[in-house]
Amino acid sequence: MSRFGSLFTAFLLLISSLSATEALQPYGYVNDFASVISSPMQQRLEDRLRNISKLHGPEIAVVTINSTDGLPIEERARLLFDTWQIGKEGKDNGVLLLVAVDDRTLRIEVGYGIEPLLPDSQADRIIRHTIVPHFRNNDYSRGIERGVQAIIDHTMSPDIASQIKNEEITEPLYELMVGAVVLLSLLFFSISYSVTRKGRKGLSLLSFFLQLILISTFYDAASKGSYLFSIVYLAGFFTLLIFHIKYIFDRSGDNNDPYYGGGGGGWSSGRGWHVGSHSSGGGFGGFGGGRGGGGGASGRW
Question: Which residue in 41, 99, 173, 266 could disulfide with 64, CB within 3.0 to 4.6 Å?
């Protein structure tokens, strides 16, 4: 009877864990359900792991939860890995770093295709020597960041790792350029509106559409990492800007111009412009259909 009761309890725990695992839906590569990772660190890790996956590196998922609900963390990690299908289909190159904060346990689960690069012994060393010391100081953000970097170092080729570092360096440059383009575009449209009020609507509309072409081409090129086009964009922008300003000053001395003088209005729009953050990259589309079974390691702190 006691043995039957133990089996029944284990069965209930398994069912409960399955339900809890199915309830967890990934919203990115970093899924901080326990809310222990700082927002800046979470964003940096998300960008880094997305870039790695984009460059055909491993799919690395970070998950923090409060508890495994009584199930061994090895079983919970395996269920989560298989449910989310971490890794690319056919390559099985997924890695899961699962942290159960209240239980003070963690697990690195490795896909079959990545096991030669990250064997159990190496995963164990990353946990004991890289992650756990920070966790003991309640510095979960730093421990997870260092652990993820150690996983990257052991699972990526030097060429891909170099590409990732270059992309992280150019990320602030991209955001700066996007902001500059938005501000310059607003200035341009304001001047275009002034030109339209002064009677040269055909000229203003032509310049307006030229500017739209410049902006759309800029975003397309920048999204592909071609920052050289920003120079072309700025050259085209200032050429049109100087042309418009010259025309406005030429017309400013015309007292017969019914639109000149008195209460100069500015450009406005009820809708405005919205540029999404480059680091967000849209909604998370899920992982690539990988399978587990490659082993891993567990630890406590």
Answer: 99
